[in-house]
Amino acid sequence: MEENKTPQTQEITFEAFIKKNLFKLKKVIIRTFTGHSKGTWIWIGIFFFILIISIVVLILQSQDETWLFDKVLRWFVAPILSLKLFGPFIFVIFMGIQGIIVPIPSELVLLSSGLIWGMIGGTIIGIIGSMTAGITTYYIAMYGGRPMIEKFLGEENLIVIDKYLDRYGIWAIIFARAFPFMAFDPISYTSGFLKIKLSDYIIATFFGSIIRCIFYAWLGSNLVTHTDISEWLSDPSKYQSFINQYSANFNFVLFLLIIVLGLAFIIYQFLLFPYLKKKTQ
Fold this sequence. Notes:
mainly alpha; single chain
């Protein structure tokens, strides 16, 4: 009789586990998609628009491995270089917009700064652009973005982050900024939601962005030499050979960034956050 009960008990436990997690999933879905204001629904719509665009980009890239590199060069690098002295201003403005609605990771934009201006110029312009994006998203979050993030992240996440920001102040933001694989925009939004003192936020963003921008400018400057880009711009007939020569490097770095950013998210969600939550209880 005991041998017959053991499998049955395991089966019941497994069914209970499934039901429990389905119930949790249902609560998350209900929490995410109910009780929103009109303004919050606009932000949710933007989120799903970004998600759809990202999926389309992945599909197109899988069909042609030069597709994304070609678009970055044609639509971003070449126009900015052609503007010469006005190029940095357009780049900074673009970074500010990118932090709000453009479905392009800030890491890819910073990588482009190294492609365009090399390591030193890319670092300086990247820092200015990061400051612009960080302050813009900070103010957006401060004046109305919190309800949407509470729905997506849950209030527990914000409470834990709030406690650590309150405990460690600007050092927590500096560390989050400086680590190259920590997503940039969520830190900006969270700081705005929690109404971190603006002067502290600006100082922390500036010093933290230095390390981050140096890393991505160095990475971008080593993907393609500035001389090769100048030659392609002066002689469009060399474009296809240029694309074929460097697209593999670009795709490899992009793939590594996606993998590392994904791992960073998983580590935070399933290891770091439970630990931080336990420490704050």
